[in-house]
Amino acid sequence: MIETLALVDRERIDRQTAERLFDLRKTAAFQLLRRMGAEPVGHSLAISRALLMARLREVQEHPQWRWERERRIRIRDRIDSLRVNNRKSLVPIDSALRQATETAEIDGLPATIQLSRGLLAIHCSDMQDLLGQLVLLAQAADRNYEDLRKQIEVAIQRLPAGSASLSRPKNSAQSA
Fold first, then answer.
1. CB–CB of 132/109 below 8 Å?
2. Cα dihedral sign, 136-140-142-146
3. Each residue of 91-118: pLDDT tens digit?
4. Is the CB of residue 148 less than 8 Å from the CB of residue 141?
């Protein structure tokens, strides 16, 4: 904020200017100016640019301000660590698995992963082996989604409209 104010050519900073300069909402800009000692001017608040810069420097140097900034950083870091995208994987990935995932292709999957129409089978020795194979399969599916989809999905067998087998049910009395 101090650096931004140093570049401004206005001598007085009002609420609207504070909103625009600091990317604040109306209420936040009003509260900032009020806390910094701005004076009422009509229906708004205004403060001299030099005084606002001096007050911001005082706040920045105050030990309680540093504590508040550090507290907010800790909270932000904690929230970020809980986000799914930032969460560390629970699957142990060694260098061999990492290298295999970088080049994973549907055709190059190990023989322990068997894909056929409507069926996926994975043969594994333990949990780590299972998770490693699932990671390989996921990487291969990500790289070759359409090929995998064609390999897995069962084609729906459709008979032409008006076919005898669809219009009349067969029973043993009619066929005799």
1. no
2. negative
3. 666 777 777 766 666 667 788 988 877 7
4. yes
